[in-house]
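Propose amino acids for all 51 sites.
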């Protein structure tokens, strides 16, 4: 997803402090959000090579 807002701003919009969404996001950050960033970057690069 591309947005002019940063991730922190998007988080504040959708996650209540102490709620389920923020807890899920916290777990993603601890265990693998960086991996998803790598997948997204590779996907974008692959698309740029094909088009």
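Proposal:
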């Amino acid at each position: 997803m591309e947005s002019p807002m940063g991730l922190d701003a998007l988080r504040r919009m959708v996650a209540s402090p102490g709620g389920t969404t923020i807890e899920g996001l916290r777990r993603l950050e601890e265990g693998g959000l960086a991996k998803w960033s790598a997948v997204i970057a590779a996907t974008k690069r692959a698309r740029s090579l094909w088009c």
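The first helix runs from residue 7 to 14. The chain has three helices and no strands.
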